[in-house]
Write a structure and sequence with these properties.
With 289 residues, the chain is α+β, with helices and mostly antiparallel strands. It is 31% helix and 28% strand. The structure holds 2,6-di-O-phosphono-beta-D-fructofuranose.
Length: 289
C-alpha cells in the first residue's frame, strides 16, 4: 500500500465524490439497457449495453479530473491516457448477469499511484457502490473502511470505521461444484456444517454481506481455470483492501491478494475474502492438496 500525499488526498476526494455523483445516473440507466450488445470485453464475456454505458460515463467523468492520469476498465483492452497523475481501474458494472433477474449489482474502483498494471503496493484507495434496495458506497482509505449512503449523488456517511463482525455467519462461493479443487471442496464440506450459504452472483453484494454479517466469499481456483474468474486489478486488489481495512483477510490461496504480482491488466486471480479464521482455514486446506 502506498501512502497518499496531501495533493493525492485531494484527488482521491474528487474521485470518490465524482463516483457518488455518477452513481444515480448509472443506476437510472439500467432498466433500459438490459439487452446484450454484439461486443465482448477483453476477457471474452458478452457486454450488455449497460456495461458499455457505465464505462463511457465513468471514463468521461473520472478522466476529466485534474490529477487522474490513466483510466482503465474491465471493458477496455488498454488503459486510456487522460493526463498526468493517478491511475483509476474500474469494474463499471460488477455482476452484470444480475441485471436480467433484477438482482443487486455494483461498481468497483481502485486507485493506484503508478501506471497499470499495478499491484497492492501501489494501491492508494479503493471502493465500491452497491446498487441494492438502497445505494451505498464503501471506501477504503488510510487503512479505514467507511460506509455511506449515496443520496442524490451526495455521500452521507453511516459507519465511520467499519469492522467485519467477529463471529462469521455466511459463506458464498462461485464456480460449479464439480469444478472445485479437492482442497476447496473439503473446506466447504466443513463450513457448510457451521454457517449459512448465501451466494448472489455479484461480487459487490456478496462481499458486502460478508462485511455485514461476517463469513467468507470465495471465487476459487477451478480445475478448468486455475486462476479463477475474477480480475486482479479491477476486483481482486480493490476488494481485498476493503476487507483488510475492515480487519478481515484476503488470499489468493496462499498469500494476501495485495501481495500478488500484477503482470497483466486483465489477469485473473483466485479470491478468498473474509474473517481471518476462515481465510486461514481455506489456505490450510488448499496447502494440503
Ligand atoms: P458477472 O460475470 O455477472 O459480471 O466478475 C464478474 C462476476 O459477475 C462477479 O461479480 C461475480 O462474483 C462472478 O462474476 C459471478 O460468476 P458466476 O456467474 O460464475 O457465479
Amino acid at each position: 500500500m502506498s501512502r497518499p500525499t496531501t495533493d493525492q488526498e485531494a484527488v482521491l476526494d474528487d474521485i470518490f465524490e465524482t463516483l457518488a455523483a455518477l452513481a444515480p445516473e448509472i443506476r437510472a440507466s439500467l432498466p433500459g439497457r438490459r439487452t446484450k450488445s454484439d461486443e465482448t470485453n477483453p476477457s471474452g464475456e458478452v457486454r450488455l449495453e449497460a456495461d458499455a454505458y457505465a464505462d463511457e460515463l465513468l471514463e468521461e467523468a473520472l478522466g476529466a479530473i485534474d490529477g487522474v492520469g490513466f483510466y482503465a476498465s474491465e471493458e477496455q483492452a488498454e488503459p486510456i491516457d487522460t493526463g498526468e497523475g493517478l491511475s483509476v481501474a474500474l469494474d463499471p458494472l460488477d455482476g452484470s448477469s444480475n441485471l436480467k433477474p433484477n438482482s443487486p449489482m455494483g461498481t468497483i474502483i481502485a486507485v493506484y499511484d503508478e501506471p497499470l498494471p499495478g499491484d497492492g503496493d501501489s494501491l492508494l484507495a479503493s471502493g465500491f457502490v452497491l446498487f441494492g434496495p438502497i445505494m451505498t458506497m464503501s471506501v477504503a482509505r488510510d487503512g479505514v473502511l467507511t460506509e455511506a449512503v449515496v443520496e442524490n449523488g451526495e455521500i452521507d456517511v453511516i459507519t465511520e470505521d467499519l469492522d467485519i463482525p467477529e463471529e462469521p455467519t455466511v459463506y458464498g462461493m462461485g464456480g460449479r461444484v464439480p469444478d472445485w479443487t479437492e482442497g476447496f471442496a473439503a473446506f466447504i464440506d466443513e463450513v457448510e456444517q457451521e454457517y449459512k450459504l448465501r451466494y448472489g452472483g455479484s461480487m459487490v453484494a456478496d462481499v458486502n454481506q460478508v462485511l455485514t454479517y461476517g463469513g467468507i466469499f470465495s471465487y476459487p481456483a477451478l480445475q478448468s481455470a486455475p486462476d479463477g474468474k475474477l480480475r486482479l486489478q479491477f476486483e481482486g486488489i480493490p476488494m481485498a483492501y476493503l476487507v483488510e481495512c475492515a480487519g478481515g483477510r484476503s488470499s489468493d490461496g496462499s498469500q494476501s491478494i495485495l501481495d500478488v504480482e500484477a503482470t497483466d491488466l486483465h489477469q485473473r486471480v483466485p479470491v478468498h475474502l473474509g474473517n481471518e479464521q476462515l481465510i486461514d482455514r481455506v489456505e490450510a486446506h488448499l496447502a494440503d492438496e
